[in-house]
Amino acid sequence: MALMENPSHPGEVLAQLFLEPLGMSAIALAKRLNVPRTRIERLVRGETSLTVDTAMRLARFFGNSAEFWMNLQRAYDLARARKTLDLSNIVPLEAA
What we know:
By secondary structure, the protein is an all-alpha fold. Helix content is 61%, strand content 0%. The two termini are 27 Å apart.
């Protein structure tokens, strides 16, 4: 399986694939999800990670799954970690 090197932040996906086509603002979505407007605004700007709570609300609203949203966050987090973590001092079990 090929690894995604530069997956999009979940907020970018939310903005480009869901909000923009609907002509909906982050504030309008926040109202529909019953969450503070800053939660969606910060998510769309990529300033915060997607939470399970928000993933479940987005899934309910857009008719997809919480797993869809959480997998976006997981892929984004792993890609960032692969670029920043130095694991060279860890010896794999089979080589020990």
